[in-house]
Amino acid sequence: MDEATWDERIAAFWADADDERPDAMWAALEPLLAERAADDAAALFERASLHDMLGEEQQAVPLYQRAIAAGLDAERDGFAVIQLGSTLRNVGRLEEAAELLQTRVDDPSLGAAARAFLALTRHDQGRHAEALRLVLTDHAPHVPLYGRALAEYAGLLTD
């Protein structure tokens, strides 16, 4: 099977995704997943993503974990870490979410997303100053006149 063709069809599936039509979504995704082995990392990730999108976080978590363990391509691996971190947060597994997201805060392609979801997690943990510090530190470079002041104030925040 041509990987690009499968990936293109997966991309088309997500372009048409609608969480208001769960049965139709599963009916469209299942044939694509059936083209892959049951333990295929990409297929596990795509299945987890649909569970997640449909608000079925408990089903998504172990699938994300299996997908990551099975070895995803770099792009999907990054998405899986962010999505799993967010999902762990949503199901109240805050320490696990924070630990996972922390592993990507310095990743040039994922850092801002990892820090944003880590900020949400820290907020849920009651670590409000740390959450605000993460957001302000990322935002400061985009505020030409006051970015330096924002970065300094962010550094002064403590819980």
TrEMBL record:
Please report a single Pfam family linked to this protein: TPR_5
- Identify the InterPro entries for this entry: TPR-like_helical_dom_sf (IPR011990), TPR_5 (IPR041656)
Tetratrico peptide repeat group domain residues: 42-157
Q: Which SUPFAM superfamilies match?
A: TPR-like
Protein's UniProt name: Tetratrico peptide repeat group 5 domain-containing protein
- Source organism of this protein record: Microbacterium lacus
